[in-house]
């Protein structure tokens, strides 16, 4: 049983022996297992997210992932308006959206299935409407663990459900349930994954998203301050090296999260992550091959170092915002805090840039006056007056 809250074993149609709250979408299940004939009576409690949407649950006979799931999906019939439940097989083509999802007979022993809105015939499909999906399945002998998959979507085209939302919760709607003990292998696994996601996000936001731009700022603006001297370089190198080390740990956590999240793919976020790590590695290696200031290849090395560095900074910031979207916290205080830190850094850059241009223009004007002899004659006239 799930200790996080109370689940329900009662429905108007039947009473079940065990129940469990599922980790996402406020869904739950209840079931009775008949060991003498390996038959599982199951009800899934879900809710719609739009009047024209769908709710589904299914069993994957081979692995805990969406691809390969034998699903029961309920939605309003486009002709009658009454909720219906149809059977679907979620193959690889459906996941890649190469073809629409078409109802097909299941190749597992489904004895019966039905659906009902909470409230019976008086119930209507709307955003938040509760729905029950009933199923009776004959399992393989001695198989007491079930790979349960569930989800919900916004639209149905005819009798073809469209893709569900791709937030973290929607992509994590998978659990391995022991129907004898009533325990879910997803509970501890989900907690571990959440902890790793938080650590991954924090490390990468600090390293690629903040320290790396801060290190670029020190190199651009402190090197021209005579009082700082050569120490700007050590500060720049220290910040960038710290950012790379923390980013490497965050990158490794991201790789591990990808291995643990079977069937979940974040294409752009993943590609940007690999690109940033490769660029960061090249920048770190560039320190080992830095030519002396008098070397003829020094100017080419500087061009390479600047281009790769600024590309890494821009992509790092972009990917941090991608990470907020992936984690489903695009409107959180964490994102607000990061935006404030980033905007503060940007404000400092603008102020330093303006100050740098003012000093540059002043020096250029003085140099022009010196070339024209105005400064020298002015100084000479001042000396004669004295």
UniProtKB/TrEMBL annotation:
SMART domains according to UniProt: B561
UniProt domain Cytochrome b561: residue ranges: 160-361
Binding site for heme b: 200, 236, 269, 305
Coiled-coil stretches: none
Major place of residence: membrane
Pfam families in the record: Cytochrom_B561 (PF03188), DUF568 (PF04526)
Domain (DOMON): residue spans on this chain: 25-153
Subcellular location: Membrane
Xref: PROSITE patterns: CYTOCHROME_B561, DOMON
Name of the protein: Cytochrome b561 and DOMON domain-containing protein
Organism: Aquilegia coerulea
Organismal lineage: Eukaryota, Viridiplantae, Streptophyta, Embryophyta, Tracheophyta
């Amino acid at each position: 049983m799930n200790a996080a809250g109370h689940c329900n074993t009662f429905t108007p149609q039947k009473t079940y022996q065990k129940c469990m709250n599922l980790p996402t979408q406020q869904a739950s299940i209840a079931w009775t297992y008949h060991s003498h004939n390996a038959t599982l009576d199951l009800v899934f409690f879900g809710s719609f997210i739009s009047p024209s949407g769908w709710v589904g649950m299914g069993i994957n006979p081979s692995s805990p992932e969406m691809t390969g799931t034998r699903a029961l999906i309920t939605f309003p019939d486009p002709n009658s308006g009454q909720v219906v439940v149809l059977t679907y097989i979620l193959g690889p083509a459906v996941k890649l959206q190469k073809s629409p999802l078409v109802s097909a007979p299941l190749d597992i022993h489904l004895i019966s299935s039905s659906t009902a809105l909470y409230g019976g015939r008086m119930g209507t499909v709307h955003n938040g409407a509760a729905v029950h999906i009933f199923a009776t399945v004959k399992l393989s002998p001695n198989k007491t663990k079930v790979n349960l998959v569930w989800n919900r979507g916004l639209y149905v085209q005819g009798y073809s459900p469209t893709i569900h939302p791709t937030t973290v919760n929607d992509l994590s709607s998978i659990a391995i349930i022991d129907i004898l003990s009533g325990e879910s292998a997803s509970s501890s696994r989900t907690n571990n994954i959440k902890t790793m996601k938080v650590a991954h996000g924090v490390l990468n936001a600090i390293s690629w998203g903040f320290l790396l731009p801060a290190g670029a700022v020190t190199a651009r603006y402190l090197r021209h301050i005579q009082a700082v001297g050569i120490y700007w370089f050590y500060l720049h190198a220290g910040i960038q090296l710290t950012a790379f080390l923390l980013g490497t740990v965050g990158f490794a956590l991201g790789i591990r999260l990808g291995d643990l999240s079977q069937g979940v793919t974040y294409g752009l976020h993943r590609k940007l992550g690999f690109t940033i790590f490769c660029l960061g590695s090249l920048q770190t290696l560039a320190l080992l091959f830095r030519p002396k200031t008098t070397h003829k290849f020094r100017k080419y090395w500087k061009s390479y170092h600047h281009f790769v560095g600024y590309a890494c900074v821009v992509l790092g910031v972009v990917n941090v915002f991608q990470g907020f979207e992936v984690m489903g916290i695009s409107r959180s205080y964490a994102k607000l805090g990061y935006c404030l830190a980033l905007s503060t850094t940007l404000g400092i850059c603008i102020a330093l840039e303006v100050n740098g241009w003012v000093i540059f223009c002043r020096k250029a004007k003085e140099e022009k006056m010196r070339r024209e002899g105005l400064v020298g004659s002015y100084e000479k006239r001042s000396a004669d007056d004295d």
